[in-house]
Write a structure and sequence with these properties.
Layout: H1 4-16, H2 36-50, H3 56-68, H4 75-85
Length: 90
């Protein structure tokens, strides 16, 4: 029995094995790209959030009227504002 022939056969199989290539490149980092509209909305939201409450005097005045029972709204005013939401002329 010849052992040399086994070595030759294993050499054939070893030559067919492809070497693995190690990846040394860094994976790209995730990025987020926002549209101009999204940036505008973000800036507007931040400005509105940071703005002082200018209507606090009006709110407090109406709150006092409601608590006193003297607050009243004209039905004509309410109906015209509702109609304006739906682009209906009075």
């Amino acid at each position: 029995m010849r052992i040399d022939s086994i070595n030759r056969a294993s050499a054939v199989y070893q030559s067919q094995v492809t070497p693995t290539v190690s990846s040394t490149t860094a994976t790209p980092k995730d990025e987020a790209v926002f549209s101009d509209h999204a940036l505008t909305v973000s800036h507007a939201y931040k400005a509105a959030k940071d703005a002082p409450d200018m209507r606090s005097e009006l709110v407090n005045s109406i709150k006092e009227q409601v608590q006193a029972g003297t607050y009243g709204v004209s039905t004509d005013d309410v109906s015209s504002k509702i109609a304006s939401l739906f682009n209906v002329e009075n």
